[in-house]
Amino acid sequence: MKLLQDKIMQEGIALSDQVLKVDAFLNHQVDPVLMAEIGKEFAARFRAERITKVLTIESSGIAPAVMTALELKVPVIYARKRKSLTLREDLYTEKVYSFTKQEESEVSVSKKFLFAGERILIIDDFLANGEAAFGLARIIEQAGATVSGIGIVIEKAFQPGGDKLAAAGYRVESLARIASLGEGSIVFADERQHQSV
Amino acid sequence: MKLLQDKIMQEGIALSDQVLKVDAFLNHQVDPVLMAEIGKEFAARFRAERITKVLTIESSGIAPAVMTALELKVPVIYARKRKSLTLREDLYTEKVYSFTKQEESEVSVSKKFLFAGERILIIDDFLANGEAAFGLARIIEQAGATVSGIGIVIEKAFQPGGDKLAAAGYRVESLARIASLGEGSIVFADERQHQSV
Asked: Which residues bind 5-phospho-alpha-D-ribose 1-diphosphate (chains A, B) (predicted)?
């Protein structure tokens, strides 16, 4: 998505070969017009999947997910993230390991809002190792629903998450894919080539 | 706002005389069409204030704040909330006490995104004791910016936050004001009468 790539080049900051800071428009300060365009783009790419709900994870996924859900005219759920959660039988819960924070947290979704047979679109701001996306996918599958797609704003294509999700049979669409980062340098990768599964 | 009051009556659950559960459309599952209408309503009420940025707090404030910012065509910032934060000189930080969770957390905003002279609109999902709103207001004032308004989706008018904020000279607009809650009963209050300050 050219608009997003331009924004990353203008306002993203490569802090190292691993870390891209985009807190100027995505995960602290948010550009709402860009989010609306991102929502339209995800909706266009996944409309044929007959999505019944969008699922994301707090907090940085919420803005792009809400805009996508608005375009698709379906509800959006944001999974709650906590360091450790008392297991409760009214929640679907999965453990998610964050390599960035080097800690495990638990993500949960109320059983009231996810149903068997639903077709769920996962939206998240970043994809690196795929831990969060796999956690959300397991929650969807616990509910007997289907993961109908995974929409990612920025994929670090030099980390294994995207390939692992694709190998697991999920359709992953990333609006920007980063091939490599260096101090002051950001190189984009081509879009992933999809097979419908 | 009639649309919001109707939604609260249809899908809100009064768990006690203190707790209104609205996780079906506001703070776990989110109705994006309602959020877009809420954004339009806040934008209409505050447009004359020449807002330069919207400020909210993660996570439940993000959806209504992003929609408001989209309508006003300004950036939105969500303050980060943490149990205890290493004080960092690149952040504005304030302590906020949550009566619901009975714990103190720290909210912070990067100094990169708030400037002296800006006119900031605070948006949040709930107003009860006003702790979060006062914390955000102190952050804005630390930056030398002006709190140009406070937009609240649901105000618990039986708790003191709204009156305290008004007494402190802030313009507070709440789209739904709850006069009282009981098991299975939700009673609305009239809108606050404003004096321009």
From this structure: 128-132
